[in-house]
Amino acid sequence: MIAKLSGRLDATGEDWAVVDVGGVGYLVHCSSRTLAALGEVGEGCTVHTQLQVSENDMRLLGFADSAERDWFRLLTGVQGVGSKVALAILSALSTGDLRDACGKGDAAMVARAQGVGPKLAGRIVNELKDKAGGMPGGSGGFAAGVAAAPAGSKGADAASALENLGFKPAVAAQAVARALEELGDGASEGDLIRVALKKAAG
């Protein structure tokens, strides 16, 4: 399976790009966000990929980063969401917006994507709500307070401390949010880090 391509951007279209790797041109279907991130034709680029095989088709999907690819895989696991719809969602929403929408159950935000009706949007957020917290992207409903906290605040500093200990940003943010709920806003930074560390590790 082809997981990543690094080469020269040879050509682009409305929803595709051709990446020249050692003289071989790979056609990859992309979201508009990935196309914008690839740069200008003739420049070097790297694209993360997913090979999709069906009875009568084989196509390579391209993503600007592994986070977008992870979300694509999650989206296409929902009944009624094929690669075209998943790319439309990833074109309309950043991975952060998508994570927030699923975390908060905001179907209307997902329905902004072309070809996604209210019923399908509702199914997407319902099925992915519990999985959104562990995905890369935005704050998620559970950690909105941490994400909104200004740099230098206790919440932001505690999350940063956990990240420095090796925890992923999403895990750190969730743990700090839960610690804040338990201890309250008056908790010291040391207590916040101690409790958040237990929650992140547990």
Automatic annotation (TrEMBL):
Keywords: ATP-binding, Cytoplasm, DNA damage, DNA recombination, DNA repair, DNA-binding, Helicase, Hydrolase, Nucleotide-binding. Residues 1-64 are annotated as: Domain I. The RuvA-RuvB-RuvC complex processes Holliday junction (HJ) DNA during genetic recombination and DNA repair, while the RuvA-RuvB complex plays an important role in the rescue of blocked DNA replication forks via replication fork reversal (RFR). RuvA specifically binds to HJ cruciform DNA, conferring on it an open structure. The RuvB hexamer acts as an ATP-dependent pump, pulling dsDNA into and through the RuvAB complex. HJ branch migration allows RuvC to scan DNA until it finds its consensus sequence, where it cleaves and resolves the cruciform DNA. Residues 154-202 are annotated as: Domain III. InterPro entries: DNA_helicase_Holl-junc_RuvA_I, Hlx-hairpin-Hlx_DNA-bd_motif, NA-bd_OB-fold, RuvA, RuvA_2-like, RuvA_C, RuvA_C_sf. This is Holliday junction branch migration complex subunit RuvA. It comes from Erythrobacter ramosus. Homotetramer. Forms an RuvA(8)-RuvB(12)-Holliday junction (HJ) complex. HJ DNA is sandwiched between 2 RuvA tetramers; dsDNA enters through RuvA and exits via RuvB. An RuvB hexamer assembles on each DNA strand where it exits the tetramer. Each RuvB hexamer is contacted by two RuvA subunits (via domain III) on 2 adjacent RuvB subunits; this complex drives branch migration. In the full resolvosome a probable DNA-RuvA(4)-RuvB(12)-RuvC(2) complex forms which resolves the HJ. GO terms for molecular function: ATP binding; four-way junction DNA binding; four-way junction helicase activity; hydrolase activity. Its main location: cytoplasm. One of its GO terms (cellular component) is Holliday junction resolvase complex. The lineage of its organism: Bacteria, Pseudomonadati, Pseudomonadota, Alphaproteobacteria, Sphingomonadales.
